[in-house]
From TrEMBL:
Keyword Transferase among record annotations: yes
Keyword hit for Methyltransferase: yes
The protein, known as: EFMT2 methyltransferase
GO biological process entries: methylation
GO CC annotations, alphabetized: cytoplasm
Gene name of the record: Eef1akmt2
Annotated InterPro entries: Efm4/METTL10 (IPR026635), Methyltranfer_dom (IPR025714), SAM-dependent_MTases_sf (IPR029063)
Species of origin: Ciccaba nigrolineata
CDD domains assigned: AdoMet_MTases
């Protein structure tokens, strides 16, 4: 990931392009719309897990959210998100290099945790993916307050699979609508977006 973000950092410095928006603009709109519909207070503490270029945090800040933190284990990603934050003049967004699978003690007490593709990336790790997924759930339990919301967008997992992965400590609140496609007479989704609540 470092190499990918180093390229995006160079591109941002050259032409001001923040790079890839995972799952597209509509995925960010979907998250923000849900938070607004639930009347989630604008001062709620929000953690973006695997923030990448930080664009989701910028959009949340533009929507009025004030207590925003982004973490990524790639220093290049955090460098890129710092540049994007600077360009947008959003100095109140907190960014830090942090491995969610080995979180520091201060990574706790969040009211909302958001994941767009990070759980997917962890799941694809060839080195003990099952253990890493279990560690992710443990880390999430310590980062998110009881009753807190976890919004996950995934292109690797179905709703049923995600319900199984997060069955310990979480309950499903809602499935968010995502684009559908038809193949061989069956209708499916290329992306799954779910909202869980921590028990």
């Amino acid at each position: 990931w470092d190499a990918a973000y180093e390229r995006e950092l160079q591109t941002f410095q050259d032409i001001g392009d923040a790079g890839e928006i995972w799952f597209g603009e509509e995925s960010m709109v979907r998250i923000i719309r849900w938070l607004e519909k639930q009347k989630v207070p604008l001062d709620s503490s929000v953690l973006d897990i695997g923030t990448g270029n930080g664009v989701l945090l910028i959009e949340l800040a533009k929507s009025g959210y004030m207590n925003l933190t982004g973490i990524d284990y790639s220093p290049s990603a955090i460098q890129l998100s710092e540049k994007v934050r600077e360009k947008e003049g959003m100095s109140n967004i907190k960014l830090k290099v942090e491995d969610f699978l080995a979180p520091s003690a201060e990574l706790s007490g969040f009211e909302i945790c958001i994941d767009k593709g990070t759980f997917d990336a962890i799941s694809l790790n060839p080195d003990n993916a099952v253990g890493k997924r279990k560690q992710y759930v443990r880390s999430l339990c310590s980062a998110l307050k009881p009753e807190g919301f976890f919004l996950i967008t995934s292109c690797n997992w179905t709703k049923e699979e995600l319900l199984n992965e997060f069955r310990e400590g979480f309950e499903i609140l809602e499935e968010l609508p995502t684009p559908k496609f038809c193949f061989g007479g069956r209708i499916g989704n290329s992306v799954t977006a779910l909202v869980f609540q921590r028990k």
